[in-house]
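Exercise 3.2. Students should predict the tertiary structure of the chain below and write it as structure tokens, then compare their answer with the key that follows.

Predict this chain's 3D structure.
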Amino acid sequence: MNEQRIFPGVLLIGFGLYFFLHQSAFTWVKPYLGWPALLLITGLAFLAQGFKGDGNGLVPGIVLAGFGLHFYVVNYLGWWANDTGVFLLIIAVGFLLQHQQTGRGLLNGILFLVLAAVMLFYGTVKQWLGPIGSFWQFWPLILIVVGGYFLFVQKNSGPARKKT
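Answer key:
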């Protein structure tokens, strides 16, 4: 199968089913036909492309499908967190899956995973630190310094660039 036909094929079938179900007499499915379903369908199309192709659609596929799924389950599962950390965790899963398939994106996946853990367990970590927890308020500055290091200090370890 031509890899460039996978994404539009899955997307059109998914949207066709979505609109068919909107017009159908199946009333039990109507509550599930909101805008999160469109995110989920688009994400599934990217995932199909990513798994059958070179893996480039995996991150957007996980992010879109994960966000769409999140907006459904947050209303039905009382234990499901509705926090910024959940979105970062979904992005981390996308990069880690991409790394598993292609060998790219491990650092990004770990970075998002650590940030998700910090966001999801912020209150608990602050309690664990006790009296030194007052320094915890400065953790965003650590992110800024490390980001600056990656942008401005770290040497380019890629192929040599020609000077023009």
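Discussion points: The first helix runs from residue 6 to 23. The chain is about 70% helix and 0% strand.
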